[in-house]
Amino acid sequence: MGGVHSCMVASLYPEPVACSPMLTPRSAAVAFCQGALQQAWEPLSLTSAAITPTVNIPKDLCLSGRTLPPQTSPPSTDQSMIRLDSLLGDRLALGTLGHEAPEQPFYPEDFESEAGVLWRWYLLESKAQAQKQLQQVLERYTDVKKFPRPKRPDAAVFVAARDDAYVSPDSVLEVHRYWEGSEMRWVPGGHVSSFLFQTEAFCGAIKDSVRRVAQGAKQLKVGSQMSSTFRRLTEAQPA
């Protein structure tokens, strides 16, 4: 979720900073719960089941992930579920989604982590409920529109892929509209192919953003009218 994180940094940094969000959704929930990755839940759960110790664990203990002393409440589901997106990313990065186990050892005791708690909870509950809970947590903490606008939104250059199955074009436009004065650029391809074959466009966006900050363009006030560039690009957005 590098694009989302870069938006967060630009939003919270106290000084003007160049920012070029690439293939960036409005929040992590868009990618994990609405895009193509939502199809990864089933193979990931099967992989998890294959390496989970075959023992009977009471449901309340599964939610806690550890032996509880008397009168101790398990951690909330919301607190635990925020770790699921990192586990998903790790599994996908290792290229083991729905296939053989990673070369890096993955021991049963790893399930005592919060991420492991989530998987055991997922196996006990429905897929739909698990996705709903994850979406609520990610929307709460990673929605870029809940962060303040950056000091220099006019210096930001967004780049999105027209055929991105992981990050919908509409989601990118939400952030673009929120950052009034920012520029929106489109490249052909999907989430991976655009990264592989459109590097020149990505590098150009970064250079332009840095140049605009260096030039010290006038900072836009919140509520200002959309620029002609914004209107032209949004009118040409993919259907």
Explain what this protein looks like in three dimensions.
The chain has 239 residues and is mainly α. The chain folds into 2 domains: 2-26 and 145-235, no CATH class; 33-142, no CATH class. It has helices spanning 2-12, 28-34, 41-51, 59-64, 77-81, 84-93, 114-124, 127-142, 169-178, 193-197, 199-215, 228-235; strands at residues 157-161, 183-187. It has a two-stranded parallel ribbon with strand order 1-2. The longest helix is centred in the last third of the chain and has 17 residues, at 199-215.
Protein traits:
mainly alpha; 2 domains
Briefly summarize what is shown.
Helix content is 49%, strand content 4%. It has 239 residues and is mainly alpha-helical.
Supply the number of structural domains.
Answer: 2
Fraction of residues in β-strands: under 5%
- Give the oligomeric state: single chain
Query: What's the total helix number?
Result: 12
Give the CA-CA distance, first to last residue.
25 Å
Strands ordered across the widest β-sheet: 1-2
- The share of residues in helices is 40-55%
What is the C-alpha radius of gyration, as a whole number of Å?
21 Å
Overall number of strands: 2
Query: Which stretches of 5+ consecutive residues score pLDDT under 50?
Result: 54-112, 219-234
Classification by helices and strands: mainly alpha
Give the SSE string: HHHHHHHHEHEHHH
